[in-house]
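> call design_seq(struct)
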């Protein structure tokens, strides 16, 4: 039994297809199939039912795949131990980010990070929180930046910053004359929301009360863009809420419509999250240090109240 064979087994278990598993593993399909067969022969069991399309994992195969993940992770930890002992911060590192954080946060820290740590090959993927969680569990990403708390047993959460919500309220809105907003002023029926699946949407629903009370809209909006929400607000279709960093990107005229909340301001917790096995922790720590040092100069709010996303996970 070899670590390479276990890698191949995990690839087949994930893709349910030998050809695709071979492509993702950068080997030929006959090579991968032969190695999986050799492992099955050695163990005296079938890991996969090849008579089905897509192939399925046998009951004993499920147990072996789960153990194979542990073995592969522990094998990778050996190199991590050496890297940490040598003070080496480098190699491939895949970082996931949720869509409502990536456009504002990434430009703030990326240049500084790659300049300070030129030996890190940073691979960045924009994904929903649900996909980030799955990919952390499956080992496809090393860490992610997401709104927390998530309270998932295999994930470690380390807060990076607390980002207040601000209101975008055009002059013709019922709250247009207010200097500041109170949470009690909000009416979910005239707040434009991001499409379902965005954690910021869930946070707004949580802030405004029971999400089940969301009324029937005159139109259905499916947009992942704060810019779209702002433009619709300007057309008199309601107000919206934005993360504070997004409000800094508005043009001067639109910035006039930004209203802060009476303290404590509702805010979201943004954290770097990763698997509890802590692989490549030295790179995760480096990312955290760079991001927190940069963001703390951009967000001066002190008195905030954390609004958790409605936890669907």
């Amino acid at each position: 039994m070899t670590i390479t064979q276990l890698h191949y087994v995990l690839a087949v278990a994930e893709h349910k297809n030998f050809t695709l598993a071979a492509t993702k593993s950068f080997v030929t399909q006959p090579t991968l199939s032969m190695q999986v067969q050799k492992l099955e022969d050695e163990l005296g069991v079938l890991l996969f039912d090849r008579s089905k399309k897509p192939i399925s994992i046998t009951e004993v195969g499920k147990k072996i795949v789960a153990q194979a993940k542990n073995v592969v992770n522990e094998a990778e930890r050996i190199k991590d131990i050496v890297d940490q002992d040598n003070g080496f911060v480098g190699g491939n590192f895949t970082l996931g980010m949720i869509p409502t954080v990536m456009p504002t946060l990434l430009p703030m820290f990326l240049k500084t990070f790659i300049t300070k740590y030129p030996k890190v090959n940073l691979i960045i993927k924009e994904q929903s929180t649900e996909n980030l969680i799955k990919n952390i569990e499956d080992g496809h990403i090393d860490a992610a930046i997401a709104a927390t708390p998530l309270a998932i047993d295999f994930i470690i959460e380390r807060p990076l910053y607390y980002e207040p919500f601000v209101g975008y309220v055009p002059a013709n809105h019922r709250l247009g004359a207010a200097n500041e907003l109170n949470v009690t002023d909000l009416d979910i029926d005239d707040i434009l929301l991001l499409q379902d699946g965005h954690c910021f949407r869930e946070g707004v629903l949580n802030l405004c009360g029971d999400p089940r009370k969301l009324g029937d809209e005159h139109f259905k909006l499916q947009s992942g863009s704060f810019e779209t929400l702002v433009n619709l607000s300007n057309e008199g279709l309601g107000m919206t809420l934005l993360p504070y960093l997004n409000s800094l990107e508005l043009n001067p005229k639109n910035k006039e419509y930004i209203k802060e909340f009476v303290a404590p301001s509702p805010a979201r917790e943004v954290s770097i999250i990763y698997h509890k096995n802590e692989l490549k922790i030295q790179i995760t720590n480096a990312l955290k240090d760079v991001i927190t040092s940069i963001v703390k100069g951009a967000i001066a709010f002190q008195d905030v109240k954390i609004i958790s996303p409605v936890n669907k996970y």
